Amino acid sequence: MEKGWTLIRGGQVVRGGTVSRQDVLFQGERIAAIGELSDSRAAVVIDADGLLVLPGAVDTHVHLNDVFMGTVSVHDYYTGTRAAAYGGVTSIVDFSNQVPGGALARTLEDKREEASGMALVDWGVHPVITEPNQATLDQIPYVVAAGAPTIKCYMTYREDGLLTEDEDLKKIAVHLGEAGGMLMLHAEDNDMIEENVPRLIEQGKTAPIYHARSKPPEVETEAIRRIVGMAEETGARFFVVHLASADGLDLITGARERGLRITAETCTHYLIFTDEMLEREDGIKWICSPPLRDAETQDRLWMALGDDRIAMVSSDDAAYSWEAKLLGVDRFDRCPNGIPGIEPRFHLLYSEGVAKGRLTLPRFVEIVSTAPANLFGLAPRKGSLAVGADADIILFDPEARWTMGGDTLHMATDWSAYEDIEMVGRILKVFSRGELIVDGEECMAEKGRGRYIHRTLLDPRHAAG
Ligand SMILES: [Zn+2]
Fold first, then answer.
1. Which residues make up the environment of ion ligand 1, defined by Cβ < 5 Å?
2. 377: which of 130, 218, 272, 455 fits an S-S bond (Cβ 3.0–4.6 Å)?
């Protein structure tokens, strides 16, 4: 018997696009062997007969401790990563906004402080540029070298101090490209929104559904059209976050076919909900940006995920308290935009995707783990079951039936957008770097065990391909 060795025996292992019955052996933090390992002398043997053995999920779009629209998200590095762990997420990448007058490098220090003694799973940082001056541009190579090669900018939220103009975006993209990085963009046209919102408010159209009316698909499509232009002009790499429009999807698909380096993700809520939710009395729960769209758009997003026109799915976790969401109850434009979703993504995408026949099992693993790890430089340590990779592993019962609701979730919000959803499949155990951190209903992870992930993008020609 070898101490410190664990063998997961006889599960259906998903790796390299295939599913087969294999054993997985890990020692300490890393996977030591995968295959037919029946005579292994591991000290701990877990019978995974009838279970799926999957790589830990990777969520590269979360907002922890996020100060936004006059409030702050209730997910900090403890509550946020705890909920993440219950949802099978063993790596997150969080956004860190450059504070007014603050150096870009400080975005990394700020998160190191927030995560210290708190994080339960491994974490990385995307700096968000809010002041695109020369000093900021000069620090881009520094943050890339410090393991944060993906920077985000916003094409809207001018009043919140987040907007960056196209001329500056192009400069940032070029500097980032030279340093080996990639620019992520929140694609919504600010001018159109700033024209629509006051008009609707003036007409007394203040209910939650008008948030969606103020940001129709054209708002997103127009911004994406400009991104395609920037990609053409600069040759740099772009990543469109939370894609939610069919025309935007077509623009990106066309650009990729012409060899431009634009990749897109969508988010869980666009695949689960439609804009009908905004018509409900409690519609403020579903106010997010871009807004939820119609059922036809939702079908197209699912199809594009299936054939890799959309590379992956993130949560865009933005968890504001009910009190904060209520700011928008009579004024959609005052509602903090965002849906708490760091925990349910894996379960929802399996249940709605694999169990309903929209995604193959290997494709599901790709969109929740492998693609985010590859695109954002967490690979090869994260995102796949492979010898030498971190032993971030999920044991999953594909037959379990249960109902998701606020009472089954562990997020820190006092409300849930996900209620009474019939689920197929359930996570039984989660390992992070070989340590069992979730066992059924119990979270055993010690506060502060999560480590900073120093990220490096793969060969630029492939990273965003
Ligand atoms: Zn976001």
1. 316
2. 455
Cα 242 to middle of ligand 1, angstroms: 7
Q: Which CATH class is domain 56-379+454-463?
A: alpha beta
For the chain, state the CA radius of gyration.
21
Question: What pTM did the predictor assign?
Answer: 0.97
pLDDT tens, residue by residue, 12-30: 999 999 999 999 999 999 9
Q: Rounded CA gap, 387 and 23, in Å? A: 12
89-97 β-sheet, strand order: 57-62, 89-97, 122-128, 150-154, 182-186, 238-240, 262-267, 312-314
Q: From ligand 1's centre to the CA of 23, what distance in Å?
A: 37
Residue 152 CA to ligand 1 center (angstroms) comes to: 10
- CA pair distance 293, 217, nearest whole angstrom: 8
Mean pLDDT of 248-276: 98
The domain made up of 2-54+391-440 is a member of CATH 3.40.50.1360? no
Which residues of the chain are in CATH 2.30.40.10 domains? 2-54+391-440
Q: Where in the chain is the domain with CATH 3.20.20.140?
A: 56-379+454-463
CA 286, 270, 296, 420 torsion-angle sign: negative
